[in-house]
Specification:
eight-stranded antiparallel beta sheet, seven-stranded antiparallel beta sheet, 607 residues, alpha/beta, Rossmann fold, binds 6-O-phosphono-alpha-D-glucopyranose, Glutamine Phosphoribosylpyrophosphate, subunit 1, domain 1
């Protein structure tokens, strides 16, 4: 989604902004722009389309040492040059970049138009530039503060004033704003990855906070002008971890690095002495864990699917009723919040608006919420009462792979810890620990199928539709497998519990519509084999994804993606790897933009 990068310092701003915008690309965008301030003049370049369009308009060199850039993901107004940010005040003296949505933009536009204002774009953001210009004050900070009192909605924004060279003002309400602290230079961004090659010291703005900065430093204050302060935190990864590392796509790199990512997720959290997991960040003692009566997991997209798998894991291991629900649906149905339910919000980015809003709604009603997040210091991570960091490392590809697996790893640990304060015996706990210790190498084995799966993708790359089915704990595997295929190949793919096939979707099974059947080696295998029979009877091609060595599978399936045998606890994670690879190879085969699929954003920070 929209991205912000701004700079004030001793170096030329343009190359820093260019590189920063490249780092923001992965979030998804459809236009971009840059404003530079030199000799008390703001110069702005904007272009619809990818960054190459903007690059072709930018000067080779520019002496400005202060400027800002933006990638826009269209919400209000189409992706055109005019609607791209930065937006300017009518006299060209104020420039603004904005993430979020100004909800009263229509009425503000009408009021400003009645006063004679003329707008150059269809965006809600442009009104902000007009409002700041209309609020002259002793400082840019004060002008921005006054302008924001007229605005309802969400924002992460940066403002520049032609009359105040080197100064930048930022404000946050609902959209992330991060200050990067350098040596004689300061940065503002919506995503720490955009500044990490310059500094690892960052300060996250809180909602309702403003920052004023120049090359020498920054000050923080609230909308009520109260001065605040916060020491920078140090990011736990470096610029190197953001490179493609020789892979053709970030997605492939992230699929392939899952063994190491999972080793980090599990690292230091398996307690052999008491055969349990130790998740210190939960901030819950054994008595509090025992008092939990239900678990409710909330997330969006792949995080929601990881939540379904997580709920299955917790319920089957810890024998606690557990369910998952899309975060936005949950908060809009005025749910009952119960004191003895543990609410878990799951989010790779920690910034997904709907998940954050669900978290706030639960807390407002007095519920206890913990988080499962990847990005350290993200909004969700800061607002929960405790949680589990995934430690998967940065995920750049829009389609989530290693973060999904790492979420499942976190739920396995949680299930074990909750189970061990209930009726999981020390011996069962020990068996689960042994299984978890084997997880990275099992995933490595599953990844070894990549070449064979690429051959399979060549065979199926002409399809237009696909079904994915699985029973109980294989169902979220099917959901996530179908999600991956549709996200990056644009093939229509639908997932169903295998038992539901005959209640509707079977009508669409034909020789052109393959079904991926997820077949773990468990007591439901015979039942799943009958689904296979039903599909074959309708001449539907079948691709079995299995870790079972059963002759009937090979007799009935057209093709097989094999997965290594493992403890049932690990089935959803290990069996999902083959489907990630299948989606990846299909998309490559079809010439798709694997890392930045159309219409999608890595982190959805608007409603
Ligand atoms: C977007 C991404 C998905 C992701 C979802 C939730 O829709 O395209 O890949 O699963 O957001 O993201 P989160 O950062 O909250 O896990």
């Amino acid at each position: 989604m929209c991205g912000i990068i701004a700079y004030s310092g001793h170096q030329a701003a343009l190359p820093i902004l260019r590189a920063g915008l490249r780092r923001l690309e992965y979030r998804g965008y459809d236009s971009a722009g840059i404003t530079l301030l030199a000799r008390s003049r703001l110069q702005t370049w904007r272009a619809a389309g990818k960054l190459d369009q903007l690059e072709s308009r930018l000067p080779e060199k520019n002496a400005a040492k202060c400027g800002m850039g933006h990638t826009r993901w269209a919400t209000h107004g189409a992706a055109t040059d005019e609607n791209a940010h930065p937006h300017l005040s009518p006299d060209g003296g104020i420039a603004i970049i904005h993430n979020g949505i100004i909800e009263n933009a229509m009425s503000l536009r009408a009021a400003l138009t009645a006063e004679g204002a003329v707008f150059a774009s269809d965006t809600d953001s442009e009104v902000l530039a007009h409002l700041v210009a209309q609020c002259p004050a002793d400082s840019l900070l004060e002008s921005v503060r006054q302008a924001l009192t007229r605005v309802h909605g969400t924002f992460g924004l940066v403002v520049m004033d032609a009359a105040r060279p080197g100064e930048l003002v930022a404000a946050r309400n609902g959209s992330p704003v991060i200050i990067g602290v350098g040596e004689r230079e300061m940065f503002i961004t919506s995503d720490a990855n955009a500044v990490i090659s310059h500094t690892r010291e960052v300060v996250h703005l809180e909602d309702g906070e403003l920052a004023a900065l120049d090359a020498r430093g920054f000050t923080l204050s609230t909308m009520d002008s109260a001065v605040t302060s916060r020491a920078p935190i140090t990011l736990d990864h470096d610029a190197e971890s953001l490179s493609r590392g020789g892979y053709a796509h970030y997605m492939l790199k992230e699929i392939m690095e899952q063994p190491e990512a999972l080793a980090r997720t599990l690292g230091g959290r398996l307690d052999r002495r008491f055969n349990t997991a130790h998740l210190g960040g939960l901030n819950l003692g054994p008595r509090e864990l025992l008092d939990i009566r239900r678990i409710k997991i909330l997330g969006c997209g792949s995080a929601y699917y990881a939540g379904i798998a997580g709920a299955n894991l917790v319920e089957s291991v810890a024998r606690l009723p557990a369910t998952a629900e899309p975060a936005a649906e949950f908060r809009y149905r005025n749910p009952l919040i119960e004191a003895d339910t543990l609410y878990i919000v799951v989010s790779q980015s920690g910034e997904t608006f709907d998940t954050l809003a669900a978290l706030r709604e639960i807390r407002r009603k007095g519920g206890r919420v913990i988080g499962v997040c990847n990005v350290v210091g993200s909004s969700i991570a800061r607002e929960v009462e405790g949680g589990i960091y995934m430690h998967a490392g940065p995920e750049v590809s829009v389609a989530s792979t290693k973060a999904f697996s790492s979420m499942l790893g976190c739920f396995m640990l949680l299930a074990l810890q909750l189970g061990r304060v209930r009726d999981v015996s020390p011996q069962q706990g020990g068996e689960m620990i042994a299984a978890l210790e084997a997880l990275p190498s099992l995933v490595d084995t599953a990844l070894g199928e990549s070449d064979a799966i690429a051959v399979l993708a060549a065979k199926y790359s002409g399809i237009r539709n696909a079904f994915y089915i699985g029973r109980t704990d294989a169902f979220p595997v099917a959901l996530e497998g179908a999600q991956k295929l549709k996200e990056i190949s644009y093939i229509h793919a639908e997932a169903y519990p295998a038992s539901e096939l005959k209640h509707g979707p079977l009508a669409l099974v034909d020789p052109e519509t393959p079904t991926m059947v997820v077949l773990p080696d468990n007591n439901l295998l015979p039942k799943s084999l009958s689904s296979l029979q039903e599909i074959r009877a309708r001449k539907g091609p079948v691709i079995a994804v299995t870790n079972a060595d059963h002759p009937e599978i090979h007799a009935l399936a057209d093709d097989v993606i094999t997965s290594p045998p493992c403890h049932p606890l690990l089935h959803p994670l290990v069996m999902g790897i083959g489907l990630q690879l299948f989606a990846y190879h299909m998309a490559v085969r079809m010439g798709r933009d694997v890392d930045q699929p159309r219409n999608l954003a890595k982190s959805v920070t608007v409603e």
